[in-house]
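[Q] Does anyone have a clean structure-token version of this?
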Amino acid sequence: MGDEQAAWAAGPGAAEQARSLLAVAWSCMVTADGGREEFVGAHAVADDGRVLLHVPEDSALLTAAICAPRGEPAAVLEFADVAPVPVRGRIRARLWMAGWFAPTDEHLVFHPTRVVLRRPSGAVVVDLDEFAAARPDPLAGAEAGLLTHLADAHPDAVERLTRLVEPESLHAATRVQPLAVDRHGLTLRIERARAHGDVRLTFHAPADDVAELTERIHVLLAQAAAASCPRTLQRQRADGDR
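[A] Here you go.
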């Protein structure tokens, strides 16, 4: 495992992750001819991935969209995937969409011509057809509540799950927090005094809802109970403070 790198094995593909990020993002940064504006709680997503943006009538973006030639990449939209649990480096991924706006009576409809997803492992250009056909992870809408509950109410369970992590990956660890969860697995953020790294715990089968996720977590905890216990985090903190 390398610091600053997440293990995305047995995880969502780029198109699915992009659609998941888009589905739960709360704010949208738009760069267009009229300038740069941030819109909070103002967008929705169509089934094919088009972004429906509600803007005030005096927005410079609305004027730019009306004046821009149709079919040209008149704007760039940026969305950030922010970890719901406080950790070092909370931005888990970023999504950029280049394209053009078509004004309607109720909102601006953004038609993407290029989609780029930047993950810890690097940036990838998402195929537009795959992006349009993909669906968000079934746990995306519940992820924030699930992770904060796990971190706040069950820190003992998080620490038990570290038994599934290679001992060298836990060297000098000061804190372990749940970073992400999707239908394929759970990602833990391992923080040290001056660095951090991520470890992926893969489920034995995908989880399509919260009930199945609960069962998958229980399986991981059972595997952790059967695993040999590495040094405790308390001892690791002492080692890291030397």
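[Q] Thanks! Anything notable?
[A] DSSP finds seven helices and eleven strands in the chain.
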